Each structure stands twice: as structure tokens, then as C-alpha cells.
Amino acid sequence: MEKYVRLQKIGEGSFGKAILVKSTEDGRQYVIKEINISRKMALST
User: Fold this and answer.
1) What is the DSSP string of the chain?
2) What class is the 4-44 domain?
3) For binding ATP, which residues are annotated in this chain's numbering (predicted)?
């Protein structure tokens, strides 16, 4: 994640968050989805 700067949270759902980030390499903006693994694992067992 060192290649990206977090700009803002743009959404949230039951499994995680969507984060708007900016690349430090090319300056482009991307959306990264952060998934709560512990919640996902609990539901799959």
C-alpha cells in the first residue's frame, strides 16, 4: 500500500469498504476494496 495515498472512503458494505486512492507512481486515481477477512471467514464456517 506504499504506492497509494488514501483520499477518502467512498462506500461501505457488509464485507468491507471502498476507498478512493491515488497512485504515487502515475498520479491516477483507483478504488481499492478493503475486505474484512474475519467477518468473511466467520460466515463461511
Assistant:
1) -TTEEEEEEEEE-SSEEEEEEEETTT--EEEEEEE-HHHHHHHH-
2) alpha beta
3) 33
